[in-house]
Amino acid sequence: MPTPEEKKNNLKRWLDTIQQDSWQLELIISGVVIFLLLGAYAPLKSMDERLALDVLTGSSVLMVIAGGFFILQVAYFSLLITFFLHLLLRGFWIGVVGLRSVSGDFDHSVLDYQPVYLNWLKKKSGSFDDYFERLEMQCIFRSAPSDKLAKTPKNEQSRNTYLCT
């Protein structure tokens, strides 16, 4: 019978594995959401046309409804753009993973440049792993736009932790 400490360690390992492999689920969710959002465009557009006609001939209550509908449209296009950007970044990330698995890290010594330029180039380009980590952080940040917007950090320390998770 596993002890509570072993159960906790197993859960922690399982959560770490899920966290590392979450990009597959992110791609599926982003693709499905983009598909659904594109499918909702025609009904949204027809409602917009009907509401525009009603507002021209209607009361101030319809103006308030039209304002709410405008906010809905802004949210719709924001989500569509965000998920599309996430899908593109994650696709690029998959290409970088494939390139990294084939090529390894940058080998600047093969370039046969002058030492001054080589040092500048190493400083500017960094390692392939650093680039991969920056790209990973961008993909993570783009994967949950509503989650990132909904959370408000209470102090500077939690803000730094919040941006890096």
Write the layout of secondary structure elements.
Blueprint: H1 4-20, H2 22-39, H3 41-57, H4 60-103, H5 115-125, H6 128-143, H7 145-150, H8 156-163
Helix pairs in contact: 2-4, 3-4, 4-6
Structural account:
With 165 residues, the protein is mainly α. 83% of the residues lie in helices and 0% in strands. It contains 8 helices and no strands. Helix 2 (22-39) runs antiparallel to helix 4.
Would you tell me the structural class of the helices and strands? mainly alpha
- Oligomeric composition of the shown chains: single chain
Strand content: under 5%
Rg, Å, rounded: 24 Å
Total beta strand runs: 0
SSE pattern: HHHHHHHH
Biggest sheet character: none
**Count of the domains:** 1
Question: pLDDT under 50 segments (min length 5)?
Answer: 154-165
Question: Shape, please?
Answer: flat
Number of helices: 8
Please tell me the overall pLDDT: 75
Distance between the termini: 34 Å
In short:
The protein has one domain. Helices cover 83% and strands 0% of the residues.
Salient structural properties:
83% helix, disordered C terminus, 8 helices, mainly alpha, flat, 165 residues
